[in-house]
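Design request, tokens follow.
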């Protein structure tokens, strides 16, 4: 057996373990969270890819429970930040405080803020001022914060799940387009079915106490992210990803009619990176070790929906970006 064949066998074994670990993680989350399988799968794909997630849904659908359960399943540090209009950047990043040494000399020491964690829940991110939002988004992009001219690294797994409520828009500060682009994906949390609501009642109005039993290390999540990048993507598939991104631009020959009519700005190259990396992870979870166009189509809605900027006509007619994406995928 050649070295190439041996390496291929080892890679397939690693990918099989990858798939098994994710299914176990989904099963552990399912012990606590009822339904929302697509939301859980999308969240795990983004976490493994090293990105961050924007969760949008009306109150009471389990967004916070999902994040807390995920933090229980991952053996790491969890932090919850409730965003309010009076929240300051230092409340997130930390600040320098005066400390006295044994010699009696007083010096400034950096006191870490809640952003120094493995999994961070940014609850109702659109309620904080743009200055505070920017502090979090800088940490998301750079994996570090700068306080008093000194940069402090956020080591290891760093996964931010930001939630926002689409109903109550008064007193909120919607995220600018450039900051939205920092999120790997935007996941819409749907209303549960009747059976799922019954399951929720069974778990929350009785003496039942469902909880996560096994834990996964944060380092294992980082290893899975590195492994996913080893999955090959054929030139045809990469070209299709590029065509999808170009198709969101109204002046592109790849644009669908709805795009030309309702879209002002299309998706950035960062969206192309996200869609291809997400497709690689989707292929592994489907038991395949090569990326197909269907993987790109499955990932496209959650990766593209927050990156497509509608024009005035599209906003006036309240055209959902998902409708535009579906038209693009049909074309």
């Amino acid at each position: 057996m050649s070295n190439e064949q041996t390496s291929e066998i080892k890679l397939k074994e690693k990918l099989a373990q990858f798939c098994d670990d994710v299914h176990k993680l989904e099963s552990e989350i399912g012990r606590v969270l009822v339904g929302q399988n697509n939301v859980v799968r999308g969240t795990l794909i983004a976490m493994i890819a090293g990105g961050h997630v924007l969760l949008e849904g009306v109150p009471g659908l389990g967004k916070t429970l999902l994040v807390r359960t995920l933090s229980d399943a991952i053996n790491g540090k969890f932090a919850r930040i409730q965003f309010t209009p009076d929240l300051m950047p230092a409340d997130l990043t930390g600040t320098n405080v005066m400390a006295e040494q044994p010699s009696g000399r007083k010096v400034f020491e950096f006191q870490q803020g809640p952003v120094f964690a493995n999994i961070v829940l940014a609850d109702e991110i659109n309620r904080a001022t743009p200055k505070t939002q920017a502090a979090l988004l800088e940490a998301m992009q750079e994996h570090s914060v700068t306080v008093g001219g000194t940069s402090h690294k956020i080591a290891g797994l760093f996964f931010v799940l930001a939630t926002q409520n689409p109903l109550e828009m008064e007193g909120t500060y919607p995220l600018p387009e450039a900051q939205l682009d920092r999120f790997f994906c935007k996941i819409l949390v749907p209303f549960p079915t009747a059976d799922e609501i019954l399951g929720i009642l069974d778990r929350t109005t009785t003496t039942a106490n469902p909880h996560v039993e096994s834990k996964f290390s944060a380092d294992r999540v980082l290893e899975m992210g590195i492994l996913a990048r080893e999955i090959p993507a054929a030139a045809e598939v990469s070209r299709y990803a590029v065509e999808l991104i170009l198709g969101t631009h109204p002046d592109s020959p790849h644009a669908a009619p709805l795009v030309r009519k309702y879209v002002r700005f299309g998706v950035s190259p960062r969206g192309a990176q996200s869609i291809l990396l997400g497709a690689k992870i989707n292929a592994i979870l489907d038991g395949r070790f090569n990326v197909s166009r269907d993987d790109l189509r499955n990932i496209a809605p959650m990766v593209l929906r927050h990156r497509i900027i509608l024009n005035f006509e599209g906003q006036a007619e309240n055209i959902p970006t998902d409708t535009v994406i579906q038209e693009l995928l049909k074309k």
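Comment from the thread starter after seeing the answer: thanks! The mean pLDDT is 83.
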